Amino acid sequence: MQTIDLQDTGLRSLNQMLHDQAETTNQTVWEIDNPKGAHAIACGLDAPIEVVVKGSTGYYCAGMNKEATVRIKGSAGPGVAENMMSGSVIIDGDASQYAGATGHGGLLVIKGNASSRCGISMKGIDIVVHGNIGHMSAFMAQSGNLVVCGDAGEALGDSLYEARLFVRGSVKSLGADCVEKEMRPEHLEILRDLLERGECNAKAEEFRRYGSARKLYNFNIDNAY
Amino acid sequence: MCGIVGLFLKDKALEPQLGALLTNMLITMTDRGPDSAGIAIYGNPETGRSKLVIQSENPQIDFPGLDALIGDRLGAPVTIAPKDTHAVLTVPAGTTQAVRAALAEHNPSLRVMSRGDSIEIYKEVGLPKDVAARFDLPHLSGTHGIGHTRMATESAVTTLGAHPFNTGDDQCLVHNGSLSNHNSLRRKLRREGMHIETENDTEVGAAYLTWRMQNGATLGEALQSSLSDLDGFFTFVVGTKDGFGVVRDPIACKPAVMAETEQYVAFGSEYRALVDLPGIDTARVWEPEPATVYFWSHADGPSETSKAA
User: Fold this and answer.
1) pLDDT, tens digit, for every residue of B25-75?
2) Of A154, A155, A98, nearest to A127 (Cα)?
């Protein structure tokens, strides 16, 4: 295991070391001490390595992640796992706004609460939040799954495309064109798998499913001013 | 983008370190706001006395003899303690308006940074570390304080455009964001008799809160009504004689992190600003909710945590 003290090494050197790891690296586990809320820790990784950040992070931790597993042993600032392609990011604490925004793939697990705009414009990422999520989450979400074990804030799934939203608790309000949908066996199966991979012991049967009513897909003259 | 820091002490033992702790937080926020910096610190009120912090472009010329001159006009003792471009005038309680008028008459180029019983505001153009050094901020003591690092968007980079803004005795405001209805609101508030010095959006926000409180609102009520009357983006931290409050607009895209321990309540635009506070690793750390007013006050007891509205 490689242990890096961020205060000694500096952010650019750390990220360069992580970027230098090839697919076949033997240095598969990295531990980062003293993150102290720094920005862009472990951004742009592209190798099947595991990075454990021992503390809280600032903006854009694990952004653009491919293949790597990043574990944050604290809370994450805005834009964690933004535009993730694959791999996984697991946060022990809370996540600030726009967690997992525009993510194309991979798994983002938030064991605390997520703030506003969680999964905004998600394009295939799976997000599992053990706690609550803030307002405008999954805005314009295109595909992927957002699982919320707690409550959702205002305007959930506004202008949604084809992402699936599963919420166990209350939803303060649904955004435009987002509706509750029937939970069919295939959805329960997807949800069970996500809960298991998301290290969450909630029961799939306790969730409701929300999705797009698909009424914004085509121009409707009645909506014109 | 701007940076905000705030520290409300519950533990009196930390009071001598308030300036040092806040300065460290402020300097950490340099890359959110490198063009100006300011701090409002509350502490050391003297019975029967109030304080004005004034600023001059030519302190060597303007400050000597000013205490005697203002003292003569008031017919009461006034003392002056210069600090770089700023000076603290200590005057009889209840005379801040009279002093302000006398200063304006005597030398209109003098600027009033703050007035009140315990507030002192120091702010200048420049990097936070340089501003802190000019005013020896690390050695200030007090009960609570607010700091701001500015990256200007809505008005010029000047001393008066820097935060915090003080528009009423012991009241101040710092802001991250931008208000879009500040011109119309400034006209309205000026018609209502509010004194607004600059074209800065935040000063209008501060004057709005003061105006509401002059008309009978509590700070909590004033902050609550700001959510409907102010248009734009804002994370506000306000200071009063007894404490500080936090409110974010309903969209809440301007960041905010808070931490609370037995010793203090702290605010930072980012968690980075809080990492060197004592006991931060075991503090309760959270993000204040959008459109929700928070307030902590020494007047309510030593460890009151409450949503004010």
Assistant:
1) 999 999 999 999 999 999 989 999 999 999 999 999 999 999 999 999 999
2) A98
Q: What is the ipTM of this complex?
A: 0.92
CATH code linked to domain B3-44+125-308: 3.60.20.10
Of B286, B292, B212, B305, residue with least CA distance to B246: B292
Number of structural domains, chain A? Answer: 1
Contact (Cβ atoms closer than 8 angstroms) between residue B128 and residue B149: yes
Is A1 domain-assigned? no
Q: Could you list the pLDDT tens digit for every one of the 225 residues in chain A?
A: 999 999 999 999 999 999 999 888 889 999 999 999 999 999 999 999 999 999 999 999 999 999 999 999 999 999 999 999 999 999 999 999 999 999 999 999 999 999 999 999 999 999 999 999 999 999 999 999 999 999 999 999 999 999 999 999 999 999 999 999 999 999 999 999 999 999 999 999 999 999 999 998 887 777 676
Tokens of B132: 């802190």
User: ω before B164 within 30° of 0 (cis)?
Assistant: yes
Residues of A in contact with B275 (CB under 8 A): 36-37
Residue-wise pLDDT for A42-79, tens only, equals 999 999 999 999 999 999 999 999 999 999 999 999 99
Q: Is residue A191 part of a domain?
A: yes
Identify whether A130 is part of a domain: yes
A174, β-bridge pairs:
A156
Alpha-carbon distance of B268 to A91, in angstroms, equals 21
Would residue B2 show up in a list of annotated catalytic residues for this protein? yes
From CA A97, how far away is CA A74, in angstroms rounded? 15
Question: A61, A113, A115, A173: best mutation site toward chain B, by most B Cβ within 10 Å?
Answer: A115
Q: Does residue A204 lie within any of the structural domains?
A: yes
Any chain B CB within 8 A of the CB of A78? yes
Closest Cα to residue B167, out of B202, B140, B203, B216? B203
CB contact under 8 A, B270 and A75: no
Under CATH, what is the fold of the domain B46-117?
Answer: Alpha-Beta Plaits (3.30.70)
Q: What is the rounded distance in angstroms from the CA atom of residue A114 to the CA atom of residue A117? A: 9
Domain that holds residue A192: 97-214
**Cα–Cα–Cα angle for B95, B98, B101, rounded to 5 degrees:** 150
pTM score:
0.93
* Backbone dihedral angles phi then psi of residue A204, each to the nearest 5 degrees: -60, -35
Domain limits, chain B: 3-44+125-308, 46-117
Count Cα atoms within 13 angstroms, Cβ side, for B140. 30
Beta bridge partners of B3: B149
DSSP A5: E
